[in-house]
Design brief:
- By secondary structure, this protein is mainly β.
- The protein has a single domain (45-262), classed as Immunoglobulin-like.
- It has two helices and 16 strands.
- It has helices spanning 2-23, 74-79, and strands at residues 50-59, 100-105, 118-123, 126-128, 131-135, 140-144, 150-154, 162-166, 172-175, 190-193, 201-207, 212-214, 220-226, 229-237, 241-249, 254-262.
- Strands 5-11-10-7-8 form a five-stranded mixed β-sheet, with no helix packed on it.
- A hairpin with a 2-residue loop joins strand 3 (118-123) and strand 4 (126-128).
- The N and C termini lie far apart (99 Å).
- It binds copper (II) ion.
- Residues 125, 150, 194, 196-197, 200 line the site of copper (II) ion (CU).
Length: 264
């Protein structure tokens, strides 16, 4: 009998231990964080009260837009609301649109990706927006608003290529980019194309911080909430390449930077 009692006690103890373990399943595993702050690159990126603003101007007579022939897909002919090329979007006073303006150098620390989803829509057999930016890890939702087949073919130089068809109107998919990729060495930002409709193209710049903007036809831009500091500001245009300028901005101040592009 004594022997049997012993095994009952052992079993009860085992159940008690298992129960104790289960009751702690909500405790996260211990992580070992190095002391002393680690590398500066791991520090949280700072925000601040400084602003860099300015304008992008096209000097001279911009090349006239061309009319895109969409005859290869009758659905596109029917759905299209804009059949002109978007290479040069020039507004009153020479403002240049679709220029991606971003902080190229001067930031330190890491910035977590924005929780905001960026939508890239295919509508009227065009991409909207035509040029845009995302943060590393930020979600891009790609939607097909057209009753025809599009395929979304991203051809990055650094990130992973993808090529996915969306044959049905209303389809949607999400993608993220895990590496910085903006006009490396003068090459384009990440290009998107549709292999069905050769005229469809868009570009995305992928950054590890939130300090970027795409200009509208007035060419104006505003990058706020920057920490005071010295920066290299870059402006990239799909046909005209990239320009950079250095700027210094203090706390609560606005520094003005303007870029002028000319054709050819
Ligand atoms: Cu298409």
């Amino acid at each position: 009998m004594r022997h049997r009692t012993f095994w009952i006690l052992v079993s009860l103890a085992a159940i008690a231990v298992a129960g104790a373990c289960n009751s702690r399943s909500d405790v996260p595993p211990v992580s070992i964080v190095p002391e002393g702050g680690g590398a500066a690159a791991n520090a949280v990126g700072a925000t601040g009260t400084s602003t860099v603003s300015g304008s992008i101007t096209f000097e001279g007579e911009p090349p006239a837009p061309e009319t895109i022939r969409m005859n290869s897909d009758p659905v596109c002919v029917k759905e299209a609301t804009n059949t002109e090329t978007e290479y040069y979007v020039v507004g009153d006073g020479g403002g240049l649109g679709n220029v991606f303006v971003y902080v190229k150098e001067g930031l330190s620390g890491s910035y977590s990706a924005s929780g905001e989803t960026i939508v890239l829509d295919q509508q009227g057999c065009r991409y909207t927006p035509h040029v845009f930016g995302v943060q590393v890890g930020q979600t891009v939702q790609i939607t097909n608003s057209d009753p025809t087949l599009h395929n979304i073919h991203a051809t990055p130089a650094v990130n992973a290529e993808f090529n996915t068809g969306q044959p049905i109107q209303g389809m949607s998919m999400e993608r993220t980019f895990d590496q910085v990729e903006v006009a490396p060495d003068g090459s384009p930002m990440v290009p998107f194309k549709c292999d069905v409709h050769g005229w469809m193209n868009a570009y995305v710049g992928v950054l590890d911080h939130p300090y970027f903007v795409t200009t509208g036809p007035d060419g104006a831009f505003d990058i706020g909430n920057l920490p005071a500091g010295n920066y290299v500001i870059a402006a990239w245009h799909e046909m005209l390449g990239e320009q950079t300028q250095n700027v210094t901005v203090g706390d609560g101040a606005t520094a003005n930077v303007s870029f002028t592009f000319t054709a050819g």
